[in-house]
C-alpha cells in the first residue's frame, strides 16, 4: 500500500527509507534510530535517537532524514531524543537479516548490560558457525568489532551490543 501524499504515513515512509551512512544495507528505521514521525501544524517532525552520544554519523543521519522529508513535500524538523537511550534490541528482524546478508553479524537481543561484562557468542554471518574469535574490539566503525570465523576463515564485523 502506498501512503497518500501529505499524510503522517507518507512522512514516515520518506524518513524510514533513509539508509544509515555507515551501514548502508539498513535504513534508519530498521536500526531503530528513527523513533517517530508526526505532523505538527503541517510540519513533519522526526524523532531520532543516535546509537550513542559520540556517533559521528548523527548529524549526517538527521540531515538525510530532513532532506528526505523535504523531497517528499514536507516542511521538516528533526528532534534528537536521548532518553531512553538507543539499544541494539531496537534493530528490527528485517534489519538483522539485512546485516547478516551484508556480512555483518547482528547483535544478540536481550543482552542488556551483560554485554559489557563478557564477549557474547558471535555467529559467523557467512557460514553460521559459532566457532569465531574476536580480532579487534573495533571494526570498520566504533559500533562494530572485528571477528574471524575459525570454520570458514572469513573475517567479518560484529555489530556490538549496546
From TrEMBL:
Q: Which residues form the PaaD zinc beta ribbon domain?
A: 120-160
Classification via Gene3D superfamilies: Fe-S cluster assembly (FSCA) (3.30.300.130)
Q: What is this protein called?
A: 1,2-phenylacetyl-CoA epoxidase, subunit D
- Write down the species: Pelagimonas varians
SUPFAM superfamilies reported for this sequence: Fe-S cluster assembly (FSCA) domain-like
Mind telling me which InterPro entries this protein's record contains? Fe-S_Maturation_MIP18, FSCA_dom_sf, MIP18-like, PaaD-like, Zn_ribbon_PaaD
Q: Where is the MIP18 family-like domain?
A: 9-71
The signal peptide, as residue positions, is none
